[in-house]
Amino acid sequence: MDPLEPYYVIVSHSYRMALTMFDAYCYVLWVKPAMTVQKRLWWIGAVYVTVMSILGWMPWYIPNILAYGLGALAAFFVMCLLDRTDFGQKIFLAVTFFCMHWQVGNIVGDVSDWSYRIWTSGLLSLKGHTYLAFFYEATAESYTFWFATYVVNCICTLLLNALLLYGAIWLMRRAYGSGQERLNRKELLLLLIPSVMGVFAYGVKEFYRNAYEAETAKSIYDLKGQSLLMILYCLACYLTILVVVYVFRKWKQEQQADGQRRIFTAQMKDLQRHVESVERLYSDLRRFRHDVNNHLMTLEEMYSRGEYEAAGRYAEDMREKMQEISPDIRSGNPVTDAVLSVRKREMEEQGISFVCDFHYPQKGELNAFDLSIILNNALANAVEASAGEQRREIVLTSRRVKNMYIIETANVFSGSLRVEEPNGLPLTTKTEEGHGYGLSAIRHVAKTYYGDVEIGVEEYRGARCCVLRVMLQIR
User: Fold this and answer.
1) pLDDT tens digits, 267-295
2) Pairwise CA distance, residues 394 & 346, whole Å
3) What is the rounded average pLDDT of the residues 428-451?
4) Is the peptide bond before 422 cis (omega within 30 degrees of 0)?
């Protein structure tokens, strides 16, 4: 009996625990950027270590695929408890980590077995050597030598596993990015296919290995040895996942860039429309001012002739003409006046009551055209959201709190508001081109003034309303 047998047990358990703890660290490192909650993430690793330790100490045999699957599943549930948003994202993270873990474990196991076989066969080859046989005789019967060899092999295996798993996650993290985008079903399916196929292959491999060993009571590796083909398959499987994730990330970036271009295009169209409204307003004013002398001369001539009644009618016509070319709303800026006047007329045509208490800030560096983009999109969304309501009323107010300028748009709303995480904006149910960019355009403008957007359903002026608040910092 080997007198160092208890020490082998100690080293084996220490090696397994160190391996499990590093796996848990890599699990947390992999999921951390995608979690909107950054506190108590160590719970994920702690639960993983706990589950794997319990399974490792159980007296009956549990297949590796089941044991590591249970560990990844337990950590997945902890992720869902810590951050109850975008479960599709977490499914992808858990399945992908499980797949990467078995790929690395398979490669490390084969390399470790090969190195140990090469070392022992090399040592045995010294037995019949003329000059080096003494080395074999001095080590082959030494319990200490073989124990030291076992310890060195465990350390090298642990370091190789750490290097490969950390490197795999680092590359995957670079390819996947922050992972804060919400995954829909089609995107989740696309990302899961390579990982699921890898896990399925792992399951098939373990099934036939266990079946052979149960039937023959021999290890298949003792019969055939380690296969380079399996290492190549693991590398090919990992590279497939990496390429799919990288291509997906580039596609999402192109989507975001396209969304920004659409926002910019919509802003430019709004800007063009507002400029045309202001130009038309000033053109009417210039034309009226040019004709005012002729109008005064006409009135003067009527009064000189004593045609007082006709002069009164002529003056009334002048007053009506002046009201037509004057904006319906006077907010303190001609650009916002034009936007609000146009929107008011549209609401009146649709039977919507419009209560406006908006005032352009006279002090501070707020661009009138930026405010026009906010007002135009906010009121357009409010008009659309009020469709189908029995009471159609929209309220627009503004106020200044120290250096913050707050714009509020409220419309009576009896439905439910579905908010998309993590951006906090409502989900659009429209599929037509151009929908869904109004609120993004408002937030884009707000960000340029170090502000943000808040939207929700609340009691507002005695009614249940959908309220949009835009906070801007006045410089």
Assistant:
1) 677 667 666 666 666 676 667 666 777 77
2) 12
3) 69
4) yes
